[in-house]
Amino acid sequence: MKRLIDVAMKREEADLVLKNARIVNVFTGELEEGDVAIADGRIAGIGSYSAKKEEDMSGKILAPGFIDTHMHIESSMMTPSHFGKAIVPYGTTTAVADPHEIANVLGVKGIDFMIKEAESVPVDFRFMLPSCVPATPFEHNGAVIDGALTAEVIGRDDIFGLGEFMNAPGVVFADGDVLTKLESATSARKVVDGHYPSCSPDELNAYSGAGIKTDHECIDTLDALAKIKRGMYIQMREGTATRNLRDLMPIVNKNTLRRCLFCTDDKQVEDLLARGHIDNNIKIAIECGLTPIEAITIATLNAAECYDMTDRGAIAPGRIADIVVIGSFEEFNIEKVFKRGKLVAEGGKALFDAATLEDGSVKDTVHMKEMTLDDVRLPLKSGRVNVMRLLPKNVVTERVTRNVKVKDGYFEYDRDSDISKIVVAERHKNTGNIGIGLVEGYGIKGGAMALSVAHDSHNIIAIGDNDADIVAAVNEIRRVGGGMTAVSGGRVYGTLELPIAGLMSDRGIDYILETTKRLTSYATSELKVADGIEPFMSLSFLSLVVIPELKINDVGLFDYSSFSHIDVEATE
Amino acid sequence: MKRLIDVAMKREEADLVLKNARIVNVFTGELEEGDVAIADGRIAGIGSYSAKKEEDMSGKILAPGFIDTHMHIESSMMTPSHFGKAIVPYGTTTAVADPHEIANVLGVKGIDFMIKEAESVPVDFRFMLPSCVPATPFEHNGAVIDGALTAEVIGRDDIFGLGEFMNAPGVVFADGDVLTKLESATSARKVVDGHYPSCSPDELNAYSGAGIKTDHECIDTLDALAKIKRGMYIQMREGTATRNLRDLMPIVNKNTLRRCLFCTDDKQVEDLLARGHIDNNIKIAIECGLTPIEAITIATLNAAECYDMTDRGAIAPGRIADIVVIGSFEEFNIEKVFKRGKLVAEGGKALFDAATLEDGSVKDTVHMKEMTLDDVRLPLKSGRVNVMRLLPKNVVTERVTRNVKVKDGYFEYDRDSDISKIVVAERHKNTGNIGIGLVEGYGIKGGAMALSVAHDSHNIIAIGDNDADIVAAVNEIRRVGGGMTAVSGGRVYGTLELPIAGLMSDRGIDYILETTKRLTSYATSELKVADGIEPFMSLSFLSLVVIPELKINDVGLFDYSSFSHIDVEATE
User: Fold this and answer.
1) What's the per-residue H, E or C state across B478-512?
2) Window B:166-195, CB contacts with A under 8 Å
3) Between A and B, how many CB-CB pairs are < 8 A?
4) At residue A511, does pLDDT exceed 70?
5) Which end of chain A, N or C, is less surrounded by CB atoms within 10 Å?
6) Does ipTM exceed 0.90?
């Protein structure tokens, strides 16, 4: 503090002065001309300053570092360090990360890995404690974080808050374990993030009244405004699969702006490189009519205020010197990024290396016996079956009834039909559980695909038009300790290895991007996965039982409407 | 939390439902029609609710309870409980109080008394730890709160933050003890309030960069906007002596509104009853062009956000049910006030009693020998003297040089001149210190006045046109253990007794109001105190050495420009 004061008062020299800049002032909504003096990684003064180390910023705009208020690093398949390296060039210097996926595999040990792994890169990740591990009582995942454990962990300094509370029914029905989680977070004065896609007015009262502060699941203005009225912050999302910002922009006005935030939720590598990160949210908001400074205010000050990060979110004295240098508002071209006063990205490239933290305890997480052909046979009495029907470009499915061939009491593949077999094999605790079901609309021919990223329990999910390839694909994932693969005629075409919890690569962005592209292209062109189906990602959501209509996990088919497991054999 | 959820979901009945109201929504800036369900003192739901206990609010407007963000209870001469009773009818349900005056007499013991005394009334006082006790190194007050003690106390749950940092020079010169105070507050994550009436751009960088979050001393838009630009919150003040709101209103726009707060700072009883409390700030803001909801937002949500009081500041689920019932925005007539869901005021009257907490340890704080005539003689060599010249309706003085009569080596009163004698007698530690000076423009004739409220050290200050009455007045204050008095011809006309720290009455508002009025009227009409001089209050500021130009404390005359003591004897 002394140094900052001494630099502000010009008794000492700043470490760096950014000269002659146009500085975004999120408090007044104006551009201010002047110099920014930086000392010890913080902003010491704005005005007229000099130092030995100066950088001329004539014509450039300085904005505070952007903040992503809700995201899952695992969705990128990169570790935090690699992910940090990937997003810094887009101006994101702080991200509130919910390590929900790794927690479902490894529990608190996985979260600890993420926290430690993130330390090496100049992005401040703030890690939430996932609130719903497992996601439902119908899951067999790798770890449980219940109320008691939450109460034990939530007060930790390196735990930023309680992650998205997807178990909304548990909240509105005042479930005891849920209340323990919420009350322990509240009494530790930690933010609780929300996730409640559609709710009645009474449910919204109950949910917001329980202290849940944010929501990123709004897809229309009605829902978003209802939540703002009850005091919630709305995280306007631009992810890879879910892009809601344009639809939500009409909610932003002079009164509500302070309650609006940006988030990405889930970003895959290809999309990240194509569209950018929070800068993409800002650009879209500007396109939709906000002034550039309003959009930047949402990405900075609002996020800092919602999450009580008073040390950032503005270019102002005492705050951390996270600064994004923008060429012009018209192009919104990010030329440089400073993190704690150090230049960390320039011209779209990070100026530092990322290296995955070596930690054996987060590897070798696939614990299951080698799969055999017998494991995946589907016994049927009649040929009348419940089938998951995929809808193009969607993660919800339909439940339909179909007639299939039966031979010797087992399901028989039919080359002329569009019915594939899907299996989910438990892989955390060697229970031997394998759920088997049937899918229409996926279109796979002549092979199988499998992956160990399968929401939210991350068992191994596989689909194919023959048992041999399904078994081979699952065994390949088992062999490499997690990943995604495509198999045809018993031959593995290729595998993206995800050794960390079966979710993340220990290599960088290039490996993930290239391998994913290669596998995806093979699935589409050679295995004939249907148009409008994103081969691996759509598969990874078929085990997410908290969304409609018919899904599958390691216990079997799950019907959303009755919220219970059902047989493949149709009863009606 | 369970009860709130159950009531929101209509599985249980609310304690009270306010039906058919128009509800101020500070998040959207709109009036929302509906019912407010209250349970366990919190808001459980907004919408459509029923209960056995309902109150029809048709046509009425419900606003969140108002928050005063900076004030000194002692200025009212009431204890917290009586003060709370006085402000609740005006809709103030939370007040951030800086017990600076009692701390100067009794230190932390005095603060503890205030905290405890406040508990009995339905107003949430949030007590700051005063940052500048004593106010300057030139003071002899009753207690010292230095950096070490601050570090020890600031983390306490019942200490809300660090009070107004008047020692701005100490901040910008990075004084060691000052830094200890600031750093301990920052690391305890407590808000630090500011007080920096005029500063250069560099000084503002240093001051705001040190983590000082608010300022209530802005008297013009230029200063206020400069501070908002650096991230500070501006407390727009309407006190008894200082009223800055109208002057500051031009700073409020759609961008800056969220950085604006209301405060009263110092409110005397008569003014409180005449103008009201924070409702007065709101009314003035509306007069100046804000919408009623914008003005209410400043008084509620903004204050809650600045001070991280997430449990209030809005009528929203989960928040404390502090609700102000307003008849119409046009009249802004407050009909009822609910605190934690209980009706606590109606038709301008509090519905509860206040009783001063009995605590002997905050009484008998006047420790000095009986004063004699010899104590107040002013030895002079020449008749050329430095004189404090009062300016009507102002707390600053001028330093002037005058010729006075000298007899036998001592100052001699002159019936035809306007020069009075002023004395400040140390009363905390029996040091025997008595500062003696001369004042022009006060106009007192035929008597003397004295009081033990004398900023900031609260020694006994007295003024008169003859030594006998001055001595009698000081001894009367000594006799009653603190208060204010008027004396003429050796006879005490009347005394307002302030037994608590010599600052506050243990009786209620009526006693203070009537006695003050009687004494003031006597001072003006009988003792001929000059027009434009508020007899007692202007006296109490003549010992405040941190404002220009010539002041007096127990050591003697103090010159603001040289920031040092000077002799009465003029050297030039």
Assistant:
1) HHHCCEEEEEECCEEEEEEECCECCCECCCCHHHH
2) 171-174, 179, 182-183, 186
3) 174
4) yes
5) C
6) yes
